[in-house]
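#structure-requests
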Amino acid sequence: MKEFDFYIVPTPIGNLGDITLRAIEILKSVDIIACEDSRVTQKILNHFDIRTKCVSYHKYNEKERINDILEILQSGQKMALVSDAGTPLICDPGSVIVKELRKNGFSITALPGANAVITLLSQVSRQDESFSFIGFLPKTEPKIEEIVKEYQFRDFVFYESPNRIIQTLEIIKNIRPNARIAIGRELTKVFEEVLVDHIEKVLNHLKNNISKGEFVCLILRDEEENNISDIENKVKILQDRGFSAKDISIILSELYGINKNLVYKITIGK
């Protein structure tokens, strides 16, 4: 098997049994593991009898750690990067060091593994495969509203904390009161819960059942057939600016995920 200088290694998002055999092998074989919180990572290492040394690497010291990590790799040692749970660089630290390592010619590879977004999506029926991942939503109401409107015709996924989930869903409900959503919490754990329903019903449930644990949320797109008037308004704006039917169908499809053929038919009046 080819060896690399730096390994990006996903860790379980809940159930320790979800770690891969290769992840265990890599974490045992490297010289140093860079981790967010050594107390969290140590629990995983102890469980699998991994005795590799750890150094801290989190969002508050990413830039400070660059030279240290470069020196370690330049000395010929191998390193792995893990986050507290899930896949590094996906709403977790790692982007800064990966950029520097590529700039300096070090070899990098990433192992496949746990991710809350895919874990949720794989158990929710959707219109097609396309979706947008937002990460954590902004904290201000106007910014959240802007995103909800922008992705009205696309499935979009985001992370949210327990103390903000109800407030966030209330904001979304005000803009899209009939939206269908899916939320997952404690995924892969004993008290895992996945709800797929209209936003109002999910909100009512959460108001009586809030618990710890980060949420992953999917807001399903509006059905295009129920939003013809909205599409027609967008078409008219572009027509008034001189765009052709073909261009309009491409633009609205790319920007809002609306079916291209549907837009074209509306544009030519069929």
